[in-house]
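Hi W.,

Here's what went into the run:
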Amino acid sequence: DAGVIQSPRHEVTEMGQEVTLRCKPISGHDYLFWYRQTMMRGLELLIYFNNNVPIDDSGMPEDRFSAKMPNASFSTLKIQPSEPRDSAVYFCASRDRDRGDEQYFGPGTRLTVT
Amino acid sequence: SQKIEQNSEALNIQEGKTATLTCNYTNYSPAYLQWYRQDPGRGPVFLLLIRENEKEKRKERLKVTFDTTLKQSLFHITASQPADSATYLCALWGGNALNFGKGTSLLVTP
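Here's what came out:
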């Protein structure tokens, strides 16, 4: 299995632009998580899905952030408009509930908003 | 409020020694605790899970203890190697989410 796939790996954009991050979870996994990691705040959960349905989005910082999971093999995290304080590494992770509680993380997208 | 605390200072040890990392938590009643490893520029990788009714768990050179009275987990790497150098994160399930500590950086020198 290729593991969790994220794209792009790096994104540099100007303040005010729309940013879309993409994730392909491990095939067969029924949970998908979006995290953000910064030095100051560590790894924070933004939102997670179970069987493509958003379960908890309480970690989404504000209305500028939105996430979708149109099918079991694809999810997007969108920031519109982006701000410099959104600069961070964004991770996607997936989990197969039947196989345990561990989460499998993708390589992350490093976002820089100038 | 809920807190997960890991030593923010890097841990430097000599190859062959045992590394011990600490994870303390407050205002959690976790059913389990997990440890992850993160290398620079990569996502965290799951290492071990220990449940509340387990005192100790081992996997190769790794050992994890879980004391729900002290609200603490210890993560040990025996016979450490330079390849063990990384950041180690502990994580607890609280509410609807897996909450992570900020991690402790381990550097193993030859």
